[in-house]
Model the fold of this input.
Amino acid sequence: MVSRSYSNLLDLASGDSWTFSREKKRLPRVATVAGVLSELDDDNNNSVSSDAPSSISPERMIIVGNQLPLRVHRSSDGSGDWNFSWDEDSLLLQLKDGIGEDVEVIYVGCLKEQIEMSKQDDVSQTLLENFKCVPAFIPPELFSKFYHGFCKQHLWPLFHYMLPLSPDLGGRFDRSLWQAYLSVNKIFADKVMEVISPDDDFVWVHDYHLMVLPTFLRKRFNRVKLGYFLHSPFPSSEIYRTLPVRDELLRALLNSDLIGFHTFDYARHFLSCCSRMLGISYQSKRGYIGLEYYGRTVSIKILPVGIHSGQIQSVLNLPETQAKVAELRDQFKDQSVMLGVDDMDIFKGISLKLLAMEHWLLNHREKRGKVVLVQIANPARGRGRDVQEVQSETHATVRRINEAFGLPGYKPVVLIDRPLQFYERIAYYVIAESCLVTAVRDGMNLIPYEYIICRQGNEKLDEILGLDPSAAKDSMLVVSEFIGCSPSLSGAIRVNPWNIEAVSEAMESALSVSTAEKQLRHEKHYRYVSTHDVAYWARSFLQDLERACRDHVRRRCWGIGFGLGFRVIALDPSFRKLSIEHIVSAYKRTKNRAILLDYDGTMMIPDSLSTTANTEAVAVMNNLGRDTNNVVYLVSGKDRKTLTSWFSSCERLGIAAEHGYFVRPNQDAEWETCVPVPDFDWMQIAEPVMKLYTETTDGSAIETKESALVWNYQYADPDFGSCQAKELLDHLESVLANEPVSVKSGQFIVEVKPQGVNKGLVAERLLAARQHNDMLPDFVLCIGDDRSDEDMFEVIMNARTGPSLSPVAEVFACTVGQKPSKAKYYLDDTSEILRMLQGLA
Done:
C-alpha cells in the first residue's frame, strides 16, 4: 500500500517523493521545532482528494493517541540506548483484538520519555520496523504547555465540571497554551500524513488531547475516513459554553465521520452544544444519530468501552497472584474487605468515601474489627496544588479515622499510596467482598469491570480461599451515579457521592445483603462485562465507522474556510457553482425568458430586521422587468401588502405572496389565488392553540397572514423551543385533522396553511401560461435559499423533459450557499446573487 502523502513540501517542490510500504523503509522525520503555530499556520492547505473508488472494508487502521502503547526504558548495558516493549495495559493496544488479524494497525503518538534529538531518527526506524509505531517527538517546553497546560489546566477540569472561577481553580484561559495545543495537534497531523493512504486507510483518533486533529487531517484529505472517540465526560452546554474556544473545538470534532461517547448523557450534551452554539440539530434514523454538517452526515456512537478480560484472567493464573491472594487472605482473616481503587486526584472522591466510612463506623460500632476499607491510591496523572491538597486531606482523614476507631492489630482504613504491580491489585479485587467507586465525575472508570472479572476467579484461587468451585460467585458494587460505567451496571448500588449518609447506608447494604442476592447481581454483571469487552467495543466502533464512510466515494468534496473554520462540503457530483459568464452568455442569446426569484435570504440577508426593500434588489427587478423578453416573478413568504408597498415602482414585476397563495402578474392586474379555499374558519381553531404555546414559550411569536398562521420560536431557548414545536405540531394536527389545511414544521417555525399551497405552484402557473400563449421559454432562472424554494427547483428541473419549455431551453436552478439541494447550481451569498442579476440586467 503506497502512501500518497509527502513528508515535506520541499520534497514535493523538488519532485523527490518518498513512499511508505509494508516493507522496511527508513522513515523521514518531520522537523518539530520548539515554538507555537497559529491556527492559520498550515503549510499543507491544499486539500487532497480522489474520485477513485475504494473498498470500504479496511486493510489498515491508523490509531492516534496522545501516548503510544509502549513501555520505554534505558538499556542496562550503559550504552544509553533505548529499549521498547508493548504496554499490555494500554487500551490502544488492547483494542486490536476487535479489529481483526487481516487489518494492519499503525500507531501514532508520543513516547513516555524524552528522546534525544540525535537518536530520534534511529528510534523512529526501530519503532516502525518492530512495532509499527510512528512516534511524534514534541519539544519538552511545547509538550508541557500542551499537556500540563491546556489539556490539564483547561480541558480536563472543564470536562469534569470545574470552572476556573478563580486563578487557583485551573487558572484563567491562556491563549499561548491554546496555541501550543494547536501546534502539537498539527505535529500529530504531520505524522499521520507520513503513513496514510487516504483513499484506503481508516483513522481512529482518541481523547481530548487531539480534539482539533480531525480538522488538520480533513484539510489535507477531504475524504479521509476518520473516527474520533472521547474517553472523558462531555459537559453540559452551560459548562462548555464558558470555554473561549468552544466553537473551534466543536467544528473540529465535526470534521470526523463518527464521534464516539461512553454514555448517552455525554452525547446528549455534545448535541446540545452543537444546537445552541452552532445551530446544528441532530436527527435519529433507524437507531442511528447523525448531524448534517455541510452535506456530510456526522454519525454519533454511544458505547462504553470494555476491559480486556483475557488479560486479567491470565494474571489471575500467575503464581505471584495466587501467592498474594494467600497473603491477603491471612492478613484480613475473619474480616470483610471493602475495596476502593482510585487515582489520587480531586475528582475521584476519595475523601468523600473516607467520610462515609467514618460515618458508618460511628453508626455501627459493634462491627469494629470486622470490616476494613482498603483504599488503593494510584499516583495522580496531573500535578499541582490541588493534587497535594487531596493527598494531605486523604492522609489526615485516614489518620483521624484509625485513631478514633482502631483497635490493637486493627485499622479500619488501610491506605496504600505506593505504586502496585498489576497482579497485586488483582489480588485485592479477589479478596474484596465489595468494591466502592465514589468519583464525583469520571468519563468511564473500569475498576468495577475489573473487579467483576476477578471475583469470578478460577479453580486454584477457589482452593486458596476455601471456596466450592461449583458454587456461584458473588460480588457487590457501590458506584457513583456520576461515572460513565454506572448505566451499564444495573445491579450495582448507585449513590450520590456528595451525600455522605447515603454512601454510608450503601456500604451497610453491600455488607448485609444476602449471599443469594450477591450471586444474582454478580451473575448479571459478569454476563455483561465478559461479553462487552474491549474487543466488542472496538469491533462495534469500526463497523459504524465503515457505515459512516460508505458514501465518501459517491460525493463530490471540497474544502472551504480558513484555520479551524475549515470544513468540507460534500454534495452531489452534478452540483457546481454558477458561472457568471455562462449564464450571461445564455441570457443574451435567448429571447423568451422566465425568471423566478425568492426574496428573503436571496435578495436580502436572512433574518434582516429591515422594514424596507433592498434598494439594489428593487433596481435589479426594475431593469429585468423592462426587457419585454422577460417575465419576472418575485416569490416570497411575505404578505401581499408588504410586497406591494416595497415593490410599487416595479410595474412589470409579477409577485407571488405567502408562498404562492396570492399571485399578481403585474402591477395593473388583480390579485388571484392559486388554490381555491372556501373559508378560513380553521384559523379560529388554530390561533388559540398557538397563543397557548406562545404564552408558555418565552421568545416565541405568532405571525398572522391572510392565508396562513406561523408560530416562530427563533428567539426561544433552542431545546425548549424545539420540544414545544413538536408538541404544537401534534396538537395542531389533532385539532385540525378534518380541516383542508397542512401543518408543517420548518426551521424555527410551525406553519398552518391551505393544502396544496407551495412555491412550486407559481412555477407551474408561469410555465403553463407561457405554453398557452405559444411562448415556450428558452431560458429559465430560478433562485432561492431554503426548503420552501425546493418546490420551485423541482418543477423547473422536471419541466426540462416536458412540453412547457423549448427543446433547447437553458435551465438554471440556483440555491444560495453550498448545501444539499434539488438545484444544480449555487452562488455563495446574496451579494453574489445581486452581482449576477446586475450582470444580466
The first helix runs from residue 9 to 14. DSSP finds 27 helices and 32 strands in the chain.
